Amino acid sequence: MKDASPQTIYLSDYTPPAYLVEDVHLTFRLAPTATRVIARINFRPNPEAKSRAFFLHGEGLKLIWATVDGQIVQPGIDEDGLTAEVPDAPFTWEAEVEIDPAGNTRLEGLYLSNGMYCTQCEAEGFRRITYYPDRPDVMAPFTVRIEGEEPVLLSNGNPTDHGPGWAEWTDPWPKPSYLFALVAGDLVAREDSFTTRNEREVALKLWVRPGDEHKTEWAMESLKASMKWDEEVYGREYDLDIFQIVAVSDFNMGAMENKGLNIFNTSAVLASPDTSTDANFARIEGIVAHEYFHNWTGNRITCRDWFQLSLKEGLTVFRDQSFSADLRSAAVQRIEDVMALRGRQFREDNGPLAHQVQPDSFVEINNFYTATIYEKGAEVIRMLHTLVGPDDYRKALDLYFDRHDGEAATIDDWLNVFEDATGRDLGQFKRWYKQAGTPRLSVEEQWEDGTYTLTFTQDTPPTPGQDEKAPLVIPIVTGLLGPNGDEVVPSQVLEMTEKTQSFTFAGLGAKPVPSILRGFSAPVILTREASPEERAFLLANDTDPFNRWEAGRMLAKEVLTAMVTGKEPPLDAYLGALATMLRDDSLEPAFRALALHLPGEDDMAQTLHDAGITPDPARIHDARETLLQEVAEHLQDSLPRLSAEMVIEAPFAPDAEQAGKRALALALLRLTTRLDGGKAAAKVYAEADNMTLSLGALGCLLDAEAGEAALADFEARWAGDALVMDKWFMMQVSHAAPEKAADVAARLAEHPAFNMKNPNRFRSVFGALAMHPAGFHHASGAGYALMADWIIRLDPLNPQIAARMSGAFETIGRYDADRQGMMREALERIAASEGLSRDTGEMVGRILR
Ligand code: ARG
Ligand code: ZN
């Protein structure tokens, strides 16, 4: 059903561009409040177009003059762009515009961050730089001349010329405007080089503000590892003489894959042992890889329109996840990826913001850079990989690069490639792109005369605008274990296509224990009744590490659910299994740390809601606290020995092995803190020589309400480091007692170092509040009210971040009438605020509908 709003954009309305661009020449005369941009663009009619109407996007531009083939023209201008009379033949468009980078707080287009010029053009920021057909199916080579006083002047492609006060860059690869980038400022580079498999030398430069040089080594190593991996695993080689990364402190997202000139949020690229946690190092490695991998999946082959966003994002996330799995522990990586998927995508997919991996419509494209487009998109590709197998997957990818290099492609093109390369019909599989919502998969077993039968039923609940759901193709990787724990039927892919479908295993000597959905082979919610003993058995014996972890997780959820609903929890089974697992030295420490981690409060709220129970955030919080205390007491005698085993003598390294030991050490420290009130944590804090342990110990101290001295010490030590201070802000909110969380956030927002214009800082306070369920959903309503106040304040400055933050309310449907009423009131207050952005307006409207 079509929305009445005139601004809604529909996939079905796609039409090819009227004019194509031959080449683009841009000249920038930089000045903080009055930068001039002179464009010379050669257009030609598109033979495939249905109309000859000439329209260029443009927003917030002051047009100085424009010509067509050298003749001054007076275009018709409105708030979206301009129209002009042009020949039905090739012609040259020239225009000069003025823009105000210093006044640009949206951080889209050209803006000043910390004294340096930088750009963010995806999705539709280029139209804030000059008039242009700002759509990804218009691709062109760019030449850029930058004039400015700044010592470093950068753009895409290769450097072709420079002189005092100017530099010229040429990007020979046709690209859409969203991949344009410009950077100018006082920057220093870490330099390195990479030799491609065809012996081409590529210069590598990582640009940072003077003073940050010591934080560049890790990203550079990650970059070289990514370049090598893409050659080895996907056969993809880099294609320019230079690859550059710039670190920027004000940035809406993690990073951006601009051709040859990636721009990164400082938080996604800068790292040093004393300022960054192991999680920061891992995230940086993944994001550097992600942006680099976009050079082929995104840049060389781009998207025809924004409805195809997952074509590049889902694929590139799948690629960066595979890369991290290869470099680190594949099992641990998979568990972490699934935790993130469930925490963000399942949450989205089960609320009012649920949407398809390929949506049919949107109002503001920035609102669709979501966990569904990214993480579910990656899961869909992972399922394809599972269904066709690694060899056919590689064959299909080779064909994809061959067939579509240099093009703006669609998700249909992608699926056609798989059909052509493998001979498979993917008609039904395509539903994964077109059907929103998380499928529920239930299973029943039957055992008779040595034959074991698993009968699966799938069911996807309705989502906004999609009441009816058809059955999906679900690859269910399954193995069977014998009573002694041996694997009697090894892993195989059960390919489910029907609503209800059975699979049989004959010739078994005894009734097996099934291990279903190994490696989380499909993004579904599996429900299977099992006794606590059987879950404990799987936690002890499953050969699939993911399902081993999952068994413990299920058991923990059952314990918590029973505690919340006043039933008898299967505590002994859980604590016994946990203790056995923890003492098993054959399990890597990182795995044991994850298995020790209780399901989070938001996860429990969703789990209860799915079971038909209205979650009470306060009770969930208390149950979790009680269970953690039980765990600590049960493991009391093992804690000192295990903790001692996790001490690292070697010098700090941010590798997966050391990180795993530190993760387990901190998990144990959190338990110890419950028994000693913070004595051990104070010692760890005082002696820590790296941020992982400092911050972990600080968290323990805050939980024990013994963190004041450490907090003050931390602030004094790190006041000059914005990324570390983000952690200082965040920790205080995320470790606040539920009844204090909103107050703490409100007080921190008054701190002199709080700056709402910096997205990292804003998120460190209000993102942390949103992710503190017992605090945000406190019965007083203070969390909701405060969040609404700040979204309203931020919206005029940075609509993208304000819109994103309003996702805090997406779980409204789970809660009781009182909470729903207060959330609705907060949302209505946002909706009614004067001049609300399209971004936030769309989000709040979808949540309220
Ligand atoms: N393409 C970038 C990435 O995935 C993200 C760009 C986000 N842009 C936006 N407007 N939300 O690496
Ligand atoms: Zn991406």
UniProtKB/TrEMBL annotation:
This protein's name: Aminopeptidase N
Q: Give residue ranges for domain Peptidase M1 alanyl aminopeptidase C-terminal.
A: 533-848
Gene Ontology molecular functions: aminopeptidase activity
Domain (Peptidase M1 membrane alanine aminopeptidase) ranges: 218-432
Which Gene3D superfamilies does its entry note? 2.60.40.1840, 3.30.2010.30, Neutral Protease Domain 2, Peptidase M1, alanyl aminopeptidase, C-terminal domain, tricorn interacting facor f3 domain
List its EC numbers: 3.4.11.2
PANTHER family registered for this protein in UniProt: PUROMYCIN-SENSITIVE AMINOPEPTIDASE
